[in-house]
Design brief:
single chain; 378 residues; mainly alpha; 2 domains; three-stranded antiparallel beta sheet; two-stranded antiparallel sheet; 65% helix; 6% strand
Length: 378
Amino acid sequence: MSLASAPTLTASERARDGRGSWMPTGALIGAKVLELRRRRGLMVALAAVTIGLPTLYFTVRLIEHAASPRQFGPAGGYQQFTGVVVAVLYVFGFIMSATLGCTAGTADLGDGMFRHLVVTGRSRLALYFARIPAALAIMVPMVTAGFIVVAAVSSLAAPSSINVNGAEVPLGLNATQFQDWAAQHSTQALCNLPQTGPVKVLLPCGARAATREAVIVRLGHQPTPTKLSPAQIASAARALAASDYPLYRSVPQRPPWSLLLESWAWVLLESLVGVVVGVGLSALLGQRTIAVVLLLILEVVLTPIASRHIIPYMLNVQRGVIGVATAHLAPHALTGPGSGTGFASVVPESRGLAWLVVVAWLVGWTALGAWRMARRDA
């Protein structure tokens, strides 16, 4: 059949076909997903980092605790959850999402298929916009699977007690139960629990409570050595437990559901940023390797510097770094004093401004990538 006799599409048929639309069709997105999934090495690397690393870490902790419970604590718990979410899912989630995004952004160019796709009459913008949901369709399930592993072990293998200066204090007690425990373990309570009130009862820890001479310290007075009976020591331990209960209650036994949902959404937001920026940067540069290296430097080098040090005359520039903005959007339980992560930015930034920075990065890199794709030579 000659070109002259080849069938042509009418305007209505072309509209139903959707080739001229800038919106990607489901079939086009599905084709991009299949194209990415065929890269076996990349898929194995994504699964190994996002799912394999948390699984390996908690497997080792479970084996250690089963082999020697006294030497190794429980595998799960609140602090284990916050630590793994921040150190693994947040950091490596962005790196792997950016890697996948860079691959999606340059797959057609690297394989030499971009020219053939353009010849079909498909919109260049549709070809570009199909890459973002395709990459997210792969990345979101992997990140979610890794998060489920972390959440499950942290909740099911949570410790039943917390170590406070050497004293094993049971978790999950109400105010009355906490005071009863302190009265029954007055030595541990008075020697190890923090005493922040105006009256402190100091015991010579190591001796028997019934025979010891306490030192009572009142604010603004000289310390007074006093012989206390066991009942008085138990009463002092109860009073100390009553004053320390708000601090004790602030240490959860396991991550609550609200923290699990907020952390999951936060990790997915970081993955979304990694994919969108990776697709946009790689499309702008026209190659994957340099884009991956630049985003790796951003996450590993520039973001820690920008978030942990205030640089004179560059505070607004630091606030514009995407890693600083997403750090301010983290759930407070992941960055607070009791989290144990040390994940806190010293750069002041409101949550509203942080959201503006995130939206600007998403829209900006999407626009740059689409602009370059629309003007790229086929």
